[in-house]
Amino acid sequence: MQNNFRFIYKNPSNFRGVFYLVLFLVSTSTFGQPYLKIKDSKKSFGIVKKGEVVKLKFEFTNTGNEPLIIFEVKTECSCTKIEFPKTPILPNETSEFIVIFDTKSVYDRQDRIVEISSNSKNKIQKIRFKGVVLNK
Question: Is the predicted pLDDT of residue 25 greater than 70, yes or no?
Fold first, then answer.
C-alpha cells in the first residue's frame, strides 16, 4: 500500500490524473442532477359522498439540469391509484401526477400520503390529499 502511494506521490502526473478524476466525479454528482419541484404538494378534495371517485392533479416541474425519471409511486391503500409520466421529464419541463381516489370502501375523514421515488436530488417526495367522505 505504501509503495503504491509513493509511486503516485513521486510521479505527479499520476497524482494529477487521480485528482482530476475525483474532481470530475464530484462535480457531475453535484451539478448534473434533476430536481422534482411540486407546485402544491397538499390538496383537499372537500366533502364527497361515499362511492364517488375523486381526481386531483398535482403539477410538478423538473427544475434541475438533467432529465427526471419517476421510478415508483407508493400509495397507502388500494383505493388510491396514481397516473404519472413514464417517460423522462426534461429540464424545465412541467407535467402532473393525477391521483384517483375511489371512496366506495372508505368513509369519514381521509388523509392520504403518496410517496414518489425518482432520480431527483430530493430522492423521495410526498404529496398529500385529504377530505371527508360522507356515509350515504
Answer: no
